[in-house]
Every structure is written in C-alpha cells, then in structure tokens.
Amino acid sequence: MAKKKQQQPEFDKYYYYSKAVQDASFDIDFLNEKYQELRGRKPLSFREDFCGAAHLGTEWVKQSSKHTAVGVDLDPETIQYGKEHYWSQLKPDQQKRFEYHQQDVTKTKDSADIICAFNFSYWIFRERKQLLKYFKAVRKNMKNDSVFFLDTSGGTEVVDERSECKELDGFKYYWECESFNPINHECHFAIHVKPDGRKIQKHLFTYHWRYWTLPEIRDVLAEAGFSKTLVYMEGDDGEGEGDGEFDIAESAEECMIWVAYIAALP
Ligand SMILES: C[S@@+](CC[C@H](N)C(=O)[O-])C[C@H]1O[C@@H](n2cnc3c(N)ncnc32)[C@H](O)[C@@H]1O
C-alpha cells in the first residue's frame, strides 16, 4: 500500500515573526514604567503606529477595563491576520476597546497617552522630509501629557552585511543585513526562518530602510516640534550582553549592536 504523505502544517510567517521579535509583556512593562516616571500617572490610551497584526495593542487592552488602544497600519493582509489571531482572542469587552485603523501613519488623527513606533518601522521613511512629515503628524496628534516612544538600534556592526542566527524554541531565526549603502544609509534587511525538521524559508519579511543614527533622529524630532527627547540605553550584564534594564543616558559606551528607546515630549 502506498504510504500516505504526511501533511505539513501550513507555514504561518506571522507566528514565527511574533515568537522571534515580539515581547509584548516586556514592551508594556517598559511603557507603563517610563510613562509613570514622566507623567506621574498610569497611561491608559495607546496608539501603536506600524502596528502590523497589533500583538502589542491587543495585549494593551487586557490591562483593565479603562485601557483603550488603536493600531495603525497600511497593510490589509497583516491587519486581517491580526483580527483573526489576536483580536478574535479578546473578550467582547476588550474587543470594543481595540480598533484597527488601516491608514497611513502620516494621515491618522488619533491621539493617545502613548503613541509608539516600535521595531524600527519608521526607518521606512528614507528621506529626511518624509521622516519629518511623520514626526510632525505625531506631534500634532499629541496632548500636553502624551509621550511618543520609538525604538532604535546602532553599534559598530548594526549595518554589517551579514546574517545573525538565534536558536529559538522549535526553529532558527535569521536577521540578515543584505546590503548597506554608506553614502545614503539605505539598507536591505531580511528575516529567514528554519523550523526544526523543515527547509529554511527565506525572505519571510524584507525591509528596504534607511539606517537613521540616534543623533539624526533626535534632530528631526526637535525640528518637528518636540521640546525634549530622552534616550533610554540598556545596562550591561557584565558579560558583554544587555541586562534588559533601560535607563536615561546622555553618554554610553559603543558596542557591536545596541537597542535603545527614545521618549519624545511635546
Ligand atoms: C516591521 S513591521 C512592524 C510590525 C510591528 N510594529 C512590530 O513591532 O512587530 C512594519 C509595518 O509597517 C507598516 N507600514 C509601512 N509603512 C506604513 C505607513 N506609511 N503607514 C502605516 N503603516 C505602514 C507595514 O504594513 C508593516 O506592517
């Protein structure tokens, strides 16, 4: 009798993306702590720009019946995935407090205690005037006590043309810098995944970005009308790795790759 071919489960690229690069509980703890320090109260409303499937925003509304969130993204496919996999898992009362807005982040009018742009998504704006337009639009949407949080990255190897591999539960994750142009800082990054026992799946996600340095980002934020920017750098665990604690800094030691957060105040 012919052997029945075993069916492989359908490949879900967003599942691997979420496991490899997202940590919603870390992000929420970070945002709550830093907002509380800056504003002396808990943040309740949240706007996640470039939200993708909005894993973070849908977790945000689980905190209490007063928490609300909107996720802004252009891509209908990613939003549809988020609706089916994250939003649908919320309780009805939580579902009412989260909305997807399929929109350009430079056009949205939503205000919130916290507006955030994470996973370097704003690097999609490769021209200074585009980045300035986005930051100006965010600035316009802010209340007196809103805070705009962004993450960024740097270090001597951040745009080295190479691939970095992490062994995760059930799969290998690759972050590859495929090209970097030192003249205009345009770069191509790609995510590949190799699930255990299966072939590598290349280019699950690709990014044509500009690598913006931290001082450039601060300058553009200032030009967009933000009165102050604070940089949170990660501490050292003593063995050359980050310790997961981010504190305000105005000077730091350079290392191969670092991630930092910026809080921009109106
Ligand atoms: C790197 S993903 C980020 C997903 C999510 N923020 C995260 O942290 O994992 C970038 C997202 O930005 C969206 N995007 C790109 N340009 C945009 C724009 N101008 N307005 C809104 N969304 C945009 C893409 O559709 C994509 O879902």
Q: In words, what does this structure look like?
A:
It is a single chain. The protein is of the alpha/beta class. It has 2 domains: 13-155 and 213-265, Vaccinia Virus protein VP39 (Rossmann fold), CATH 3.40.50.150; 163-208. Helix content is 26%, strand content 33%. The protein has helices at residues 13-21, 24-39, 55-60, 76-85, 92-96, 128-141, 214-223; strands at residues 45-49, 68-73, 98-102, 114-117, 147-154, 163-168, 171-180, 186-195, 201-210, 228-236, 242-248, 258-265. Strands 3-2-1-4-5-12-10-11 form an 8-stranded mixed beta sheet. The longest helix is centred in the first third of the chain and has 16 residues, at 24-39. It is globular, with a radius of gyration of 19 Å. It binds S-adenosylmethionine.
The number of helical runs is 7
Sequence stretches where pLDDT stays below 50 over 5 or more residues: 1-8
What CATH architecture label of the largest domain applies?
3-Layer(aba) Sandwich
Element-level helix/strand string: HHEHEHHEEHEEEEEHEEE
CATH H-level superfamily title of the largest domain = Vaccinia Virus protein VP39
Please indicate the count of domains.
2
- Proportion in β-strands: 25-35%
Helix content: 25-40%
Question: Class of the largest domain in CATH?
Answer: Alpha Beta
Q: Which cofactor or ligand species appear?
A: S-adenosylmethionine
Mean pLDDT: 94
